[in-house]
Amino acid sequence: MEIFFATTNLGKLGEATKILKEIGIKVKHFPFVYNEIRSDSIEEVARDAVKFAYKRLKEPVFVEDTGLFIEKWNGFPGTYSAVMLKKLGNEGIIKLMEGEPNRAALFDTCIAYHDTNGTTVAHGKCYGRISESIRGKSGFGFDSIFIPDGGEQTFAESIELKNKLSHRYKSLLEFSKSLKLRR
User: Fold this and answer.
1) Which CATH class is domain 2-182?
2) C-alpha closest to that of 125 among 94, 171, 179, 162
């Protein structure tokens, strides 16, 4: 089975390609430039984006939206994670959290898929905490500052751990199950 993934994020593309390949789904890249809506809901953002992608591609397609939700900051940056990463980087987050004992955080991913039957969504969550320093060289985005619950390494220190525990992995598995039922 082949399916289009609409994204400009090559890190997300690489992870999705690897994970879905292991379960028999080939990912085809649809380079996707889109002005994302502003919303506090990752599902709303993903649903809007996939409808736009489907109109342009005219083929079954999925998109993915992920947010890092930091408990101490009432869930911020959430759907604004990409903007925060671009403006402050991981260094800025570490600096802003300096001395903060509550470092609890959640990664939440929503995959939205659209075909002639409409839109479906799949979710994946990973609970953890923000590290006290930048650690590791693998991955992308917030991987060097996020430690999943029960672990001591950031995702960037153990990409194997990330590929088995992450929000993206969980959402892709849920998505693949719904996709097989839909075909």
Assistant:
1) alpha beta
2) 171
Instruction: Fill in the DSSP letter of residue 153.
Output: S
| Catalytically active residues, by annotation | 65
Residue 32 φ/ψ, nearest 5 degrees: -125, 115
Rg (CA), the chain: 16
pTM of the model: 0.89
CA pair distance 28, 109, nearest whole angstrom? 20
Provide the residue ranges of all domains of the chain, joining segments of one domain with +.
2-182
Task: Summarize the confidence of residues 142-163 as an average pLDDT.
Answer: 90
Taking the CA atoms of residue 119, residue 111, residue 57 and residue 11 in that order, the dihedral angle to the nearest 10 degrees is 180
The runs of H, that is alpha helices, within the chain are: 10-21, 42-57, 81-96, 159-165, 167-182
Beta partners for residue 67, in sequence order: 108
Position 123: which residue type? H
